[in-house]
Amino acid sequence: MKKETFSGAKSILCKSLLCLTALLFAAGITFAKAASSEDIAGIEISFIYQRGTTIASNQLAVWVENEEGEVVKTLLVTDFTAGRRGYRNRAMSLPVWVAAADPESMTDEEIDMVSGATPGQGELVYFWDFTNQLGERVPDGVYTVHVEGTFYWESDVLYSMVIDITNPELEIPVEMERTAPDTHENENMISDVTIRAI
User: Fold this and answer.
1) Domain, as residue range, for 145
2) Same domain, 17 and 80
3) Which of 12, 49, 84, 144 is the most buried (most CB within 10 A)?
4) Same domain, 93 and 7
5) What is the DSSP letter of 171?
6) How far apart are CA 194 and CA 75, in angstroms?
7) In angstroms, how far is CA 16 from the centroid of its own chain?
8) Mean pLDDT of successive 10-residue segments in the chain (198 residues)?
9) 58 and 10 within one domain
10) Bridge pairing between strands 71-78 and 115-116
11) What whole-number distance in Å separates Cα of residue 158 and Cα of residue 146?
12) Do 72 and 125 have their domain in common?
């Protein structure tokens, strides 16, 4: 008798779960899960940029590194630091990008491919399509997207976002590091950094 009662309850529970699943599906409610690299076109990086009002400011870089810390693609680096080789005279200009990318070993043509004028104010959006600087698809694995900004002389900020492109999460946490946190000039130059798979 007890066995029959348990079986009956189990049957009712299963039917209830099936009905609930059907109702959620009909309502268009699904449970979020990680996508695969085949499901998405790439990674979108966005942030709000506000131009600094002082000298030794307004330097930006956005780039991607592999697990070995090698730069696989630079999406943006401002012209003063890269195009005009400003890192030679101002070592505190985008020091993290300079150390990672080693622009001294890059030709003028390679620098021209990645450098650009300081952008206008507002929301900036960059896109990484899982390719390297030559346009070749990178291997699946873990990569780190960096956004660096030089606020004022040695005052610098670095945003880092780690992503496994084999199975990318739809929401990717952002970590921030500051140098000279007591220096407040232009400290709102970069804000609201977000990254998402699209």
Assistant:
1) 43-197
2) no
3) 49
4) no
5) B
6) 15
7) 42
8) 45 43 38 53 95 95 97 97 95 96 96 93 96 96 97 96 86 91 94 92
9) no
10) parallel
11) 7
12) yes
